[in-house]
Amino acid sequence: MQCRYVVGLQEIDADDLQLRRQQFGANTFPAKRSKLFVQFVWEAIQDLTLIILVIAAIVSFGLSFYEPPHNHKSIGRQTV
């Protein structure tokens, strides 16, 4: 590579830089494709903790509408 390990490349010209890019490739990471919101939601609903929380919320919501029947013959209590 003809570079110093301590200081790296010194005084490099454009031709040498182009040659190095052809030999070794560009020193960059490829850009990742960004995820859609639906993909984040899909990954989230596959989490066991979130599944348990959603089920608990649905049960809680369903029980909020439940009203026990009024029983006038309560044991140990007098009704008027």
Give a written overview of the molecule:
This protein is mainly α and 80 residues long. It has helices at residues 14-24, 37-45, 48-64. It is rod-shaped.
SSE layout and pairing:
Layout: H1 14-24, H2 37-45, H3 48-64
Task: State the main characteristics.
3 helices; mainly alpha; single chain; 80 residues
Say how many strands there are: 0
How many helix segments? 3
Share of residues in helices: 40-55%
Terminal Cα span: 98 Å
Strand percent estimate = under 5%
Shape: rod-shaped
Task: Characterize this entry briefly.
With 80 residues, this protein is mainly alpha-helical. It is 46% helix and 0% strand.
